[in-house]
Amino acid sequence: MADKTLDDLFHDTLKDIYYAEKQILKTLPKMAKAAQSSELKAGFETHHEETQAHIERLEQVFELIGKTPRGKTCDAILGIIEEGKEIIEEYKGTTALDAGLISAAHAVEHYEMARYGTLRTWAQQLNMPEAMKLLEQTLKEEEATDEKLSTLAITDVNKKAA
Ligand code: FE
Ligand code: FE
């Protein structure tokens, strides 16, 4: 078998998160629709817009490495999204729904943070400062979203669910 290097890992992982972001883009409107709290609904809507920018940035990174943007099925995100769907179905109309939605969204954001953190570090190692900046920008937005979700859970949603 031919040797593989960090370039191969970088490209494969880029395809993984590109696929994941497209799945997340389809899922966020469903989360917004399900949310009971207007603040949570607005949060999902804002992150839906940000997710479109994440996809565009990934397309720029593909361009920087001279590859056509293409996704590769990511079973991890499909599983995380499936669990979110279960929460929507099983907690529909209940007091705990929003707390459950936030827990599902946290799982999504942490998956993304893991991927973007890795890709950013690899871009640095591979001497791609422009790609690094794009990945870092998205990583910051995922972290900010994760924190906003935590704040909303602690100050409001968890109390209402209890
Ligand atoms: Fe994202
Ligand atoms: Fe995200």
Strand-helix topology:
Blueprint: H1 6-34, H2 38-64, H3 75-91, H4 97-125, H5 129-161
Bound molecules: fe (iii) ion (FE) (2 copies).
Protein described:
- The chain has helices spanning 6-34, 38-64, 75-91, 97-125, 129-161.
- The model has no long low-confidence stretch (mean pLDDT 97).
- The protein has 5 helices and no strands.
- It is elongated.
- Helix content is 83%, strand content 0%.
- It is mainly alpha-helical and 162 residues long.
Q: Uncertain spans, ≥5 residues at pLDDT below 50?
A: none
- Classify the oligomer: single chain
Give the termini distance in whole angstroms. Answer: 56 Å
**What's the mean pLDDT score?**
97
CATH architecture: Up-down Bundle
Biggest pleated sheet? none
CATH topology: Ferritin
In total, the number of domains comes to: 1
Beta strand count: 0
How many separate helices? 5
**What is the CATH H-level superfamily?**
Ferritin, core subunit, four-helix bundle
Features:
single chain; 162 residues; mainly alpha; Ferritin; 83% helix; binds fe (iii) ion
What's the short story on this structure?
This protein is an all-alpha fold and 162 residues long. It contains five helices and no strands. It has one domain: Ferritin, CATH 1.20.1260.10.
